[in-house]
Design a protein that fits this description.
Number of helices: 11
Shape: globular
GO molecular function: hydrolase activity, acting on carbon-nitrogen (but not peptide) bonds
Organism: Iodobacter fluviatilis
CATH architecture: Alpha-Beta Barrel
Mean pLDDT: 91
EC number: 3.-.-.-
Bound molecules: zinc ion
CATH superfamily: Glycoside hydrolase/deacetylase
Helix content: 40-55%
Radius of gyration: 19 Å
GO biological process, one term: carbohydrate metabolic process
Keywords: Hydrolase, Signal
Length: 271
């Protein structure tokens, strides 16, 4: 018995120490064969480009940031209604092509206190678009201009589709004063919504991932556009918010979690 309790104590001590010293990392299991960035690359780039490339917050405050990618879409207003009711602010990584389609939804999200960020113009793997700066001009800059037109500013934060950025692109973002925001908890809502045709089952699967892997200062990846629609994600959000609040978590936006500005101070002039 004594030996066992010593082992347990040892484990507790090492877990405690690990918490204080562990580098940022992806906590959720990797979904194979779906074209997403491998966890080892995420972890390496987070370590190598600390200060520009983030998976989670820097400390252990009981604050978490829910994030939604790919929108806005016809599903987004229902999500905004829910977030308003719960008084929860989130971060949206939106595509320029969608921003142009739903400018009213963009203005509403901003008016209701959410943070807006750049998720490319139409969702290519940016790391494959190196030549001639196309990745920047045709994808990120085009979306910065879409935001400029709709809300009058350009965001500081971007998230690469599927997580892919090559090292020179990350360095280039550094030079532009922009931050790459990845995630520590991938809800895999895109996968579970595809696997489960019933919204209830898909929602349960999404909830279970987040429940199991949520941690202090987590950045949680979800989607408000694409697939067969995002009702399961919205349902999961509606159930998780009260539950996580009860556990003592506070919801915040990524810029506040990381203590960085949400808007670029001096936007480059439009060409
Ligand atoms: Zn995306």
């Amino acid at each position: 018995m004594k030996k066992i309790s010593r082992i347990v104590m040892g484990l507790l001590v090492s877990v405690g120490m690990a918490n204080a010293q562990t580098p940022p990392r992806l906590r959720t299991p990797f979904v194979e064969n779906w074209g997403q960035i491998p966890p080892a690359v995420l972890d390496r780039q987070a370590k190598e480009f600390a200060g520009t490339y983030f998976l989670e917050g820097p400390g252990d405050r009981k604050e978490i940031a829910f994030t939604y990618d790919d929108g806005p879409s016809l599903d987004t207003p229902a999500l905004l209604d829910l977030l308003k009711k719960e008084n929860v602010k989130v971060t949206f990584f939106w595509q320029g092509s969608q921003i142009e389609q739903f400018p009213e939804t963009v203005r509403r999200a901003l008016a209701e206190g959410h943070t807006l960020a750049n998720h490319s113009y139409n969702h290519p793997d940016l790391s494959k678009l190196e030549d001639g700066g196309v990745w920047w001009q045709d994808q990120l800059e085009k979306t910065q201009q879409a935001y400029q037109k709709v809300v009058g500013f350009q965001p500081t934060m971007m998230r690469p589709p599927y997580g892919f950025l090559n090292d020179s692109q990350i360095k280039s973002l550094q030079g532009k004063g922009m931050k790459a925001i990845l995630w520590s908890v991938d809800s895999a809502d895109w996968f579970h919504t595809h696997q489960n045709k019933m919204d209830e089952l898909a929602s349960n699967a999404i909830e279970n991932v987040i429940r199991q892997y949520i941690h202090p200062e987590a950045i949680v990846l979800m989607h408000d556009s694409g697939g067969r629609g995002r009702k399961p994600t919205i349902l999961a959000t509606s159930r998780l918010i009260p539950e996580l609040k009860k556990q003592g978590y506070q919801f915040t936006t990524v810029d506040k979690l990381l203590n960085i500005p949400a808007k670029l101070a001096s936007a480059p002039a439009a060409k």
